[in-house]
TrEMBL record:
<protein>
    <submittedName>
        <fullName>Uncharacterized protein</fullName>
    </submittedName>
</protein>
Length: 206
């Protein structure tokens, strides 16, 4: 002890030769005959029908991805559940189920109000949540008064709103839907997983 402070001693550094030896062993294992060649590439692309890491629906010729922890796509999973999900009839279900083609979701993009930077909801009218709420109230008022709602006139009078930046999920580049900072898809996933951390909007209108 010196001046009330403990004397610190440097730990011995890692032997560079030991690190090289470990790297050589790892390289030899990766290049060995028992290592799956699929995992040797810098960018790993797993085929949908891979015997261990396969991600495609088990219904023959179905092109859709399996849903969650199930080995069936969402549509076939619902059909299987509706039949009772009896394992004894699984082979018969695979034989009779109609395979489905792969579908691609189209991103809704920005709100259709001119100049609005917020993300649109995924329906045909393509409004952000705030403009969607205003549109619903405007159409309800017109119906209550027995008037025909003029969408073009309404759009011309609406003011645009600033956006909320890019989704905070590290893997995502879509626009955020709300001040919470999540795109529509990640906001839905956050809700499904019980909103860990308790992040929420108060009030929910923005």
């Amino acid at each position: 002890m010196t001046g009330g402070h403990e004397v610190l001693r440097l730990l011995p550094g890692t032997d560079q030769r030991e690190s090289r030896d470990r790297l050589e062993i790892l390289t030899a294992l990766i290049n060995g005959p028992g290592f799956d060649p699929l995992l040797r590439a810098d960018v790993i692309e797993v085929p949908s029908e891979h015997p261990v890491f396969g991600w495609c629906c088990r219904v023959p010729h179905c092109e859709r991805a399996a849903h969650g922890t199930s080995d069936l796509c969402d549509t076939h999973r619902q059909q299987w559940s509706a039949l009772g999900g009896d394992e004894a009839d699984r082979a018969e279900f695979f034989r009779t189920a109609v395979p489905l083609q792969l579908t691609r979701a189209v991103r809704p993009g920005a709100c259709r109000v001119v100049g609005c930077e917020r993300m649109a909801l995924g329906h045909k009218h393509r409004f952000c949540p705030r403009h969607d709420n205003r549109w619903r109230r405007a159409t309800a008022r017109a119906q209550a008064q027995g008037l025909e709602f003029d969408l073009d006139a309404w759009l011309s009078e609406e003011e645009p709103y600033p956006g909320f930046g890019v989704c905070l999920a590290a893997c995502c580049h879509d626009g955020a839907l709300s001040p919470l900072g999540l795109c529509p898809n990640h906001d839905q996933r956050y809700t499904r997983e019980g909103r860990p951390g308790g992040a929420d909007l108060d009030p929910p209108r923005y």
